[in-house]
Each structure stands twice: as C-alpha cells, then as structure tokens.
Specification:
By secondary structure, the protein is an alpha/beta fold. The chain is built from 15 helices and 13 strands.
C-alpha cells in the first residue's frame, strides 16, 4: 500500500511538473510574439505610409504573394483586404511562373512577403513587376535583401527571435506579417471611409451579415403601419391596434409628421369609463423613441432592450416610414 501511495504521489508530482512546463512554454511564445508586435508598432514610419499610398492608389487589384508559411499568411491578408474595401487576391509564386502572371495587369500592385527576402520562387514575380512598372510593396526581415532592394516600399520587420526554441519554425515572423497586413487593411479601410453599409455589402451571409442588416431591410411599411391622426376617436384606435397586430399606434398630423405613440401601457394608464370618448392626441405619449431607416437592426434591438419596449417607429425627416417589432430582429437573426 505504501509503495502504491508513493508511486501515485510521484506520478502526480511529475504530472504537475509537466503541466507547469507546458504553461511556461506557451507563455514564453506569447510573450516573445507580444514583444515583437510592440517593436513592430514602434518601427512604423515613412515606408508604411509609402506602402499605404501605393495600395490606396491601385486602380486594379492588390496582388498578394508569398511562399510557404509566408504564402499562408498572404492568403489571409488578401482576404482581409478584399473584405474591407481593397480589392485583392492571392497568386501563388510557383503558379505565377507557369502562366498565372497573366492574372496581373499594369493597373495592379504587388504585395510580396518573404522573411529572408531571397525566396527563389518570387524572382519571376519581381522581374515581372519591374518589367511592367507594377508598384511593389515588399515585407521582409532583411533590409538589404533582394526583395527589399526591388520594392518601391520595403516594410522591414524588426529583429526578433522566432518563438520556436530552435529558432527554425516561422512563428514570430509570421505573426508580424499577419499583424502588418491587418494594420494596412484597417488603415486603408479608414482612409477610404469604408462604412458599415459597405461592409454589409461584402458580408451578406452569416452572423456578421445579420448584424449589419439595416432597418429598411426588415421593417414593415405601407398599409401594415398602424397610423392615426390626433383627432381619431380612441374607439377606432383600439380597432386599428388590434387589426394591425403591433399592439400600438403611431400618431401623425395632417402633413404626415410623427407626433407620438399609443401603446398598451398608455391604455392601462388612461383606463377609465371615459377612455373611448377621448381622442388619440389626448392619450398618446409624445416624443417616443424612434429610429431611422438607415440605422442597423442591431441598434434598434439595443434601443428596445434598453427601454424595455417591443416596437420602434421608423422615422425620417419627421415622417413615419414604417414600424419594427422586436420579433422582426429575432427572426432576421439579429441578437
């Protein structure tokens, strides 16, 4: 029994030691890469702005290329650029040498990644850029490399050790490339004043697309909207509220200007034998919460949650254009 107990204790101690070593290893990687990212941020300067100018002025596409791990990062950068308003796609350098150079035109620009700056597979792409005067942005860790010398804007990664303990596996270097691609993409997005509406046009599907739905995409309009004048008898207002099935009615004047709202709560507050002999203008709540047709559906849901209401009238220029129920947001997947 004693031996068994000692063996279990030794096994537990070994397990704890291994776990501690694993966590220390993971933290070392993250700290190494975090320090490198901080250095990258401090290093940005004129060359970053030059790269930004080249990419912003591109009339065609930003062609991203890289080999190996740099290529994997390049594919993600191309996707991020394209999804944030800068048309881009990835060309594999090996395929470029076998016909895909024909995908690149004089109106494009090249964005090439190589940690060493001496990647053999990039030679044909660099030569093609020089031959046809295609602007070239290069990302490398070596300032005097062939890629850096050929580039119109050379983005030099700061000296930083790879997180791999052998210094062999691309880890820190690829993290820096990815972050630099994000920095360029977002800077271009802001320079181009890329709006949520623009973003939605490129992301119509999935959860992101649902979050970017506009009010006008899901609101009820026309004859569905329960609207009455201030002079309408409450007996008629009740019929309209029941028939339209929103549990409320909007009040508009003769010019169509939105004045207020009557809800179930207003009915309870004014409940008395005289209610049916009053008018909508006497019962309504003035200046209720409203929203514009170009606002995001997620904004409407936030307002309804904050104010504990289930409907919002959609108003533009002072006039009621439609109505939105909380269920419309939920059905559209906005949550």
């Amino acid at each position: 029994m004693t031996q068994s107990s000692d063996g279990a204790t030794a096994k537990a101690d070994t397990s704890m030691t291994v776990s501690a070593d694993d966590l220390a290893s993971a933290r070392r990687v993250l700290n190494t890469e975090a320090e490198a990212l901080a250095a990258l941020g401090k290093s940005l300067g004129p060359s970053f702005l030059a790269a930004l100018d080249i990419m912003a002025a591109t009339q065609g596409r930003v062609i991203v290329s890289g080999m190996g791990k740099s290529g994997h990062i390049g594919r993600k950068i191309a996707a991020t650029l394209a999804s944030t308003g800068t048309p881009a796609f990835f060309v594999h350098p090996g395929e470029a040498s076998h016909g895909d150079l024909g995908m690149i035109t004089a109106s494009d620009s090249l964005f090439m990644l190589s940690n060493s700056g001496e990647t053999t597979e990039l030679v044909d792409l660099v030569a093609y850029a020089v031959r046809f005067s295609i602007p070239l942005v290069g990302v490398t860790s070596v300032a005097g490399s062939a890629l850096a010398n050929a580039a119109d804007a050379a983005l030099i990664l700061p000296a930083a050790p790879e997180a791999c303990p052998m210094g062999l596996a691309p880890t820190t270097s690829t993290t820096l490339m990815l972050a630099l691609g994000d920095a360029l993409s977002v800077a271009l997005l802001e320079r181009h004043r890329f709006s949520p509406a623009d973003f939605h046009a490129l992301h119509p599907g999935g959860k992101l697309g649902r979050r970017l739905l506009k009010i006008s995409d899901i609101m009820h309009d026309g004859q569905e909207v329960p609207l009455v004048s201030p002079e309408t008898d409450m007996s008629e207002v009740l019929i309209i509220m029941t028939n339209k099935r929103f549990g409320c009615a909007g009040i508009v004047d003769a010019d169509g200007l939105f004045l207020g709202i009557i809800t179930d709560g207003d009915l309870r507050r004014h409940m008395s034998p005289e209610l049916l002999s009053t008018t909508a203008g006497e019962v309504m709540t003035k200046n209720p919460a409203t929203i514009g047709p170009d606002a995001l559906a997620s904004e409407a849901l936030a307002i309804m949650n904050e104010k504990a209401i289930t409907n919002l009238f959609v108003v533009e220029g002072g006039r009621a254009l439609g109505i939105l129920h909380v269920h419309d947001c939920l059905r559209a997947g906005v949550a």
